[in-house]
Input
Amino acid sequence: MLFSPLQAGALTLPNRILMAPLTRARADAGHMPTALMAEYYAQRASGGLLITECTLVAPNTSAFTSEPGIYSAEQVQAWKQVTAAVHAKGGRIFMQIWHPGRAAHPAMNAEPIVVSSTARAIDGDVHTPQGKLPNAVPRALAADEIPGLVASYVQGAKNAIAAGFDGVEVHGANGYLIDQFLRDGVNDRTDAYGGSLENRARFLFEVLTAVTAAIGSDRVGLRTSPLNSYNSMVDSDPIALTAFLAERLNAFHLAYWHVMRADFFQAQTGDVLPVARKHYQGVLIGNMGYSAAEATQAIQDGQLDAVAFGTGFLANPDLPARFKAGAPLNTPDASTFYTPGAAGYTDYPTL
Output
């Protein structure tokens, strides 16, 4: 089942082994994509679909210092080398478009924009060019600022298509801006963007409405993480949130919905994927900790349509070939996940 084709919106995927978005912090100054990044993605082009690392839709919102952007003409031009390299290898690639919201930090931005649904900071410290610093206290967005943010996602999506991407994945997961509205453990608003599930999802739905209108719903995916407590996230009822989203997302006719099934820190537990499957009629992608055998079984049982692999793809550029051959996998080197250069990036061996 992993090697059967799948129609995902406008794309026919040759297999159901997707590359999950993975922050690698290899962009140059000015959040510019590089030739090394083109090599990295091209090496992994045998995946059914590659999804890039989170990519900034607005300047001065950096959360990782060396993540790429998609808000300038120069970035669009630089990304073309990436998409051309992947397409030359017969691959397909979506860009994950992203605003970090309160995860941005002043120490990483010339004119910092640290905004959120709330005025509460993420707990703890963050690594910055000036060393470890406390997370910044965000400014709660005014309702009349939200259309401008929606417009930045739209421009990011248009820029991604101009750069040669096959589509975009809207980042609604892991405690970044959209997720900061979705989950009630963070969203403490009392206006039209807070309180009820309908209100908390309003920003997400406005982004999806505008982005799908701009580039076509069949070239738009969405990623959510109803359980993940990364970035000090929690929700009072992740199952209800998942069911609500599943029912409402049907109207958008997306290429796919990409759901992270667990919590990095096991602070929240629950079985969200069966709920998503029950109510969502489109292509459903699962992610987090799948083996080839478990992924195959989940697809065979109709629980999922495809599985996205993160560190497995990071360390194994030929992951589909290894799965097919039943070959051993390279071990990911966590010490090089975010370090500059080719080491631990483009030097993992193939079979």
User: Anything to note?
Assistant: The chain has eleven helices and 14 strands. The two ends are 22 Å apart (CA to CA).
